[in-house]
Amino acid sequence: MSDTLITTSSDIMGGTPVFAGTRVPVQTLFEYLEAGDTIDDFLEGYPTVTREQVVVLLETAKGRVLAEVK
Q1: Are 20 and 4 in contact (CB under 8 A)?
Q2: For the chain, how many helices (H) and strands (E)?
Q3: Nearest Cα to 16, choosing from 27, 4, 3, 5?
């Protein structure tokens, strides 16, 4: 996988952060999870996003949260 996980471009979704190589907003993953859906549900709905991208994003977010509470 590319070192770039999330990209933004005014040409893609008006600059909304998206998973690199897709037009899928990162926020959509969090909305799925907040609604009680699974990662598999999200991936089924957005097949251009890979499981690896989702896991890396969640691990990165987890690391940042844990670093802030220390």
Answers
A1: yes
A2: 3, 2
A3: 27
Query: Using only C-alpha atoms, what is the Rg of the chain?
Result: 13
Residue 1 lies in a domain: no
Q: 35-46: b or e for each residue (b if 16 or more CB lie within 10 Å)?
A: eeeeeeebbeeb
Instruction: Tally the residues of the chain.
Output: 70
CATH code of the domain containing 29: 1.10.10.10
C-alpha span between 23 and 65 (Å, rounded): 26
pLDDT band of residue 6 (cuts 50, 70, 90) is very high
